């Protein structure tokens, strides 16, 4: 049920309050307020133009005693009483069956503002007879009718018929009338087949009666009492009617939707107000102070809709007549009260100081605990960093307060994406730099240890890397329950998103030249990881969703959570296979021996993604199971059918020779035998040569630069960062700067 409150509009000063006994705003000006002793409030009315519409007209005949009142509608009925939500009418509706003579009655309120209340029941008295009732339910707001029917059978002996006793019982049965019913038809039929000729039985009757009381004389066939009807305004509920010009609720009233799914509404005064809510200015404030609800030594102050009691000066208490009242303050009591108050203030001040000290100490201990729990000691051992100090130049440890301010208390509107390791937020540091902050997820102790190891592993490895095509780690925060990593913000999402999401439109310049450049950037970064760092680094999770694109669509490799480094002279690591299905090296998966060729295989899958526009795992059909993109592309290459899998954009813009060369390179990278695959340095060189041939360049300064750095073992490129907010991917796989999936 919906309630809407109406208040006076542009009211400068409230109208004066009035007594509860005072009767105001009962009827429209100039219209009678009573018919006999019965008060007739608006929207009802006696006489012309005194009601809201003809359904509420009251014809008052005072020539008889008591006066006779008729409600003018399609069927006029005699009015007994009017209340805030109901009216009562005389009960002269009777159905009878006497031998072959029968009489039925029908009540139809389907086009009126009246419906049956659930205070009514259809009562049947008689012997071996069936009462059948057909009713229609009124359903708002489209005013459709919903049919329903009911009936009951009464049994009794010839000499023991119902005579004003309780019902149901011998010779009597009842049918409830649902709230909201607008149409009722009642008729009686005999039971003849099984019980023989019952037409000689006494007469049977049915009539409308109340639930809890029943008065009926079987000899005369007369019933007394009233039929209770609910009434309402209009056919629209409060929210709909409020927008209409003839909305009936005025100031300081509440609009109440009609019950039982019936359209329309009623108005009621707010608590503390009285009057007729259907007539302007609406309900007025009641002056509760007239009845003096306060103590004799208190002052009553009337407020709109309420009142307050205040003790006079020198007294204290709740000031209520029925409460503690007011009692006089003596100087000794006041002095003791002041002394107690001063002691309380001193103790409270000491308490605040001690609580601040304890909270500060607990916070410090808590941060030390989390620093140790999040691998801070291990990080100190591997990086020689002390808590609160800067790590390797621009990479530093952030405080929790800094990151909370940067992300607006980690507001959900700042989320870039979620993954297996945690949630990534966009943030702005105090110097205005836009960053990506990964908040590791809170897990159980067993998983927590594993995630902390990945976290420390990623920090330690990224501290060794300085390359323009590897996402830059700016710092971390260890003093919260879960560790946080802070990266440079890469605004243009993941390569996966741009390859496979058709909603990108023309914003991403997906040309063949760009594909070659992205492939060459990633290959150069991986070659750097394998050959130019102090210890070779194996990424283990190269995939298009871990390749980010900055504002100039420069590729950046991310997610080093499961990366491993090789010791000097070491060729492989024996470890459980880890990575993403569709990209993981099958040889590594079978042997659990991780080599640099495992990254080569994963990069080969990314190359095929760029060529074909297909995902790494091709969805299954009814006829066949799902299969990997690697085997699918190798089958096409072996059958010399490259055109069948090329992406339309690549086929339209690229040169045939270049496409074939990249496809062959990818095929070599995807060789099942890792020893037959090229290394990443060879892949990077070949891609650079293809770019040079594609662009018609005579000098490849980038290739020369990379060759020199590879040979020197010192590979350090400048960083690309952004100060502007960019768009983010909404795909589950586009979490940046880092996510991983395991098998």
Write the layout of secondary structure elements.
Layout: E1 3-6, E2 34-35, E3 38-39, E4 45-46, E5 57-61, E6 68-71, E7 77-82, E8 86-90, E9 94-98, E10 101-103, E11 105-108, E12 114-116, E13 120-125, E14 129-139, E15 144-154, E16 172-176, E17 181-190, E18 204-210, E19 215-217, E20 222-224, E21 226-231, H1 238-241, E22 253-257, E23 265-269, E24 273-274, E25 284-285, E26 298-303, E27 306-311, E28 315-317, E29 326-328, H2 331-373, H3 376-383, E30 390-391, E31 395-397, H4 400-406, E32 415-418, E33 422-428, E34 434-440, H5 445-463, E35 473-477, E36 484-488, H6 495-500, H7 512-531, E37 537-538, E38 547-549, E39 555-557, E40 564-565, E41 573-574, H8 586-591, E42 593-594, H9 596-612, E43 617-618, E44 627-628, H10 629-638, H11 648-653, H12 656-669, H13 680-695, H14 701-712
Helix pairs in contact: 7-9, 7-13, 9-12, 12-13, 13-14
Task: Summarize this structure as a short list of keywords or feature phrases.
alpha+beta; Phosphorylase Kinase, domain 1; seven-stranded mixed β-sheet; repeat; disordered C terminus; 743 residues; Ser/Thr_kinase_AS
Brief synopsis:
One of its GO terms (molecular function) is polysaccharide binding. This protein has 743 residues and is α+β, with helices and mostly antiparallel strands. Helices cover 25% and strands 26% of the residues.
């Amino acid at each position: 049920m919906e309630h809407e409150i109406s208040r006076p509009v542009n009211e400068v000063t409230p109208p004066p309050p009035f007594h509860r006994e005072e009767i105001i705003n009962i009827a429209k000006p100039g219209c009678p307020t009573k018919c006999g002793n019965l008060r007739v409030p608006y929207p009802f009315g006696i006489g012309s133009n005194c009601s809201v519409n003809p359904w509420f007209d009251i014809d008052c005949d005072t020539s008889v005693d008591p006066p006779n009142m008729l409600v003018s509608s399609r069927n006029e009925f005699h009015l007994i009483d009017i209340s805030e939500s109901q009216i009562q009418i005389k009960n002269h509706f009777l159905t009878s069956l006497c031998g072959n003579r029968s009489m039925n009655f029908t009540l139809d309120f389907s086009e009126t503002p009246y419906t049956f209340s659930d205070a009514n029941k259809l009562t049947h008295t008689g012997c071996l007879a069936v009462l059948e009732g057909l009713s229609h339910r009124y359903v708002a707001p489209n005013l459709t009718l919903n049919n329903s029917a009911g009936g009951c059978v009464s049994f009794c002996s010839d000499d023991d018929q119902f005579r004003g006793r309780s019902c149901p019982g011998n010779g009597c049965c009842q049918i409830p009338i649902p709230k909201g019913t607008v149409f009722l038809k009642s008729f009686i039929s005999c039971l003849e087949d099984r019980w023989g000729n019952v037409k000689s039985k006494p007469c049977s009757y049915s009539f409308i009666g109340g639930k809890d009381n029943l008065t009926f004389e079987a000899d005369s066939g007369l019933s007394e009492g009233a039929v209770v009807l609910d009434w309402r305004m209009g056919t629209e509920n409060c929210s709909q009617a409020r927008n209409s010009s003839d909305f009936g609720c005025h100031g300081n009233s509440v609009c109440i939707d009609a019950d039982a799914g019936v359209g329309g509404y009623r108005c009621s005064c707010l608590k503390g107000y009285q009057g007729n809510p259907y007539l302007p200015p609406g309900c007025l404030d009641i002056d509760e102070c007239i009845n003096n609800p306060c103590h004799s030594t208190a002052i009553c102050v009337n407020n709109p809709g309420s009142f307050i009691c205040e003790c006079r000066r020198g007294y204290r208490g709740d000031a209520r007549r029925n409460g503690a009242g007011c009692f006089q303050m003596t100087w000794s009591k006041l002095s003791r009260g002041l002394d107690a108050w001063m002691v309380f203030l001193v103790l409270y001040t000491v308490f605040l100081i001690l609580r601040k000290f304890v909270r500060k100490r607990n916070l410090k201990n808590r941060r030390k605990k989390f620093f140790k729990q999040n691998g801070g000691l291990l990080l100190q051992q591997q990086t020689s960093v002390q808590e609160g100090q800067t790590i390797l130049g621009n990479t530093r440890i952030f405080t929790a307060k800094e990151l909370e301010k940067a992300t607006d208390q980690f507001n959900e509107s700042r989320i870039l994406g979620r993954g297996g390791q945690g949630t990534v937020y966009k943030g702005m540091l105090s110097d205005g730099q836009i960053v990506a902050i990964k908040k590791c997820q809170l897990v159980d102790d067993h998983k927590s240890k594993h995630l902390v190891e990945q976290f420390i592993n990623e920090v330690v490895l990224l501290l060794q890397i300085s390359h323009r095509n590897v996402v830059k780690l700016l710092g971390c925060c260890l003093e919260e329950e879960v560790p946080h990593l802070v990266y440079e913000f890469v605004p243009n999402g993941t390569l996966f998103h741009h390859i496979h999401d058709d909603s990108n439109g023309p914003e991403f310049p997906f040309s063949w030249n760009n594909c070659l450049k992205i492939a060459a950037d990633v290959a150069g970064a991986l070659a750097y990881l394998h050959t130019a760092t102090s210890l070779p680094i194996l990424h283990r999770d190269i995939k298009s969703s871990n390749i980010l694109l900055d504002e100039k669509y420069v590729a950046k490799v991310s997610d080093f959570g499961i990366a491993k480094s090789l010791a000097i002279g070491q060729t492989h690591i024996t470890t459980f296979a880890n990575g993403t299905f569709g990209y993981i090296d099958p040889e590594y998966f079978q042997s659990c021996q991780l080599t640099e060729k495992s990254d080569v295989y994963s990069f080969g899958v990314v190359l095929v993604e760029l060529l074909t526009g297909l995902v790494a795992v091709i969805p299954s059909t009814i006829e066949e199971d799902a299969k990997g993109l690697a085997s699918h592309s190798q089958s096409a290459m072996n059958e010399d059918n490259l055109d069948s899998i090329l992406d339309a954009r690549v086929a339209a813009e690229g040169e045939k020779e270049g496409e074939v060369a990249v496809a062959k390179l990818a095929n070599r990278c995807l060789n099942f035998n890792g020893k037959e695959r090229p290394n990443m340095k060879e892949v990077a060189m070949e891609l650079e040569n293809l770019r040079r041939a594609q662009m018609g360049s005579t000098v490849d300064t980038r290739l020369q630069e990379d060759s020199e750095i590879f040979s020197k073992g010192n590979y350090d490129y400048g960083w690309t960062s952004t100060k502007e907010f960019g768009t983010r991917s909404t795909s589950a796989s586009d979490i940046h700067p880092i996510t991983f999936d395991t098998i």
